[in-house]
Amino acid sequence: MTTTAPVPSSAIALRLLGNETAKGVRVMWAHKAPLTLGLAYMAMLYWVIQVFIGGGRLVGDVLAMTSVAFLGWVVLYIASLRMVAGVLEEMYTGTLEQSLLSPLRPWVASTGRLAAALVEGLLIAAVVAVLNLIILLAVQGVELAFRLSALIPLGITLLDIAGFVLLFGGIALVVNSIGAIIHVVQNVIMMLNGAFIPVFVFPDWLELAAKILIPTTLGLDATRQILVTGAPFHQIWLNGTLLWAVVHAVALLILGWVVYQGAIRRGLREGRLGA
């Protein structure tokens, strides 16, 4: 009689992460009409507002300083909407509670759901980036050179986004009016994270508030300094921008994780995650 060796829990966890990510991408692709409209909205929004800011024309210097920050907001916008919509849909259909009835700890399913939301946001941002790049190349005065060192603040920004996504995913499980709240918060982020106007032109108090309270602002400001002003990596570390970006990302990630896992445990205890 032969026996089958048990599959290591780490392998099961990785498989679950992959399945959650693949499921999210398949669901996104299945809804092609909303996806197309969303891409069109994202692509047009940036340019329409930039025309207003430029007084009827596109200003190359402003485009160079804000284009990357706008893409960061796109990732945050899509990922947070997918996370919130996903947990609410699964909660109302009863599959959220079922997905947690597993030998694996709940954090595995949570990480898979987060990964799926981030991948969707990154994919849509990549398409918007290509569309924007075509226009940027035709606008005079745009000087944006890619440097490998910019990947570090971009990675930190992604962690910042992950914390925000988890935070609102957890809030969605306990607050009924989360839809209205998240749209208001996202609009505030869009206006203050440097997506349309560089944060350094804000009044000092508003710049400070944006860097402390608004996710992605610090990481994207560090990215701007590298890509636009050509600042070396050690300079953005010494001036504190990157250091505080790391602190902000870690703090928000911990807060988001605690809130989300706390909401899951409360829901399981009270039986609120089923249909």
Verbal overview:
This protein is an all-alpha fold and 275 residues long. It has one domain (13-270). Helix content is 76%, strand content 0%. It is built from eleven helices and no strands. The longest helix is centred in the first third of the chain and has 34 residues, at 60-93. The protein is globular and about 55 Å long. It starts with 8 loop residues before the first helix and ends in a 5-residue tail after the last helix. The model is unreliable at 1-7 (pLDDT under 50).
The biggest beta sheet is recorded as:
none
Counting DSSP E segments of at least 2 residues, the number of strands comes to 0
The fraction of residues in strands falls at under 5%
What oligomerization state is this entry in? single chain
Taken in chain order, the helices and strands follow as: HHHHHHHHHHH
Shape: globular
Helical/strand content category: mainly alpha
C-alpha Rg (nearest Å) = 20 Å
Low-confidence stretches: 1-7
Mean pLDDT, nearest integer? 82
Q: Please indicate the count of domains.
A: 1
With helices defined by DSSP (H or I, 4 residues minimum), what is the helix count?
11
The share of residues in helices is over 70%
C-alpha termini separation: 44 Å
Topology:
Elements: H1 9-30, H2 32-53, H3 60-93, H4 95-99, H5 106-136, H6 151-172, H7 178-192, H8 204-213, H9 217-227, H10 233-238, H11 241-270
Helix pairs in contact: 1-5, 3-5, 3-6, 3-7, 3-9, 6-9, 6-11, 9-11
Quick rundown:
The chain contains eleven helices and no strands. The protein has 275 residues and is an all-alpha fold.
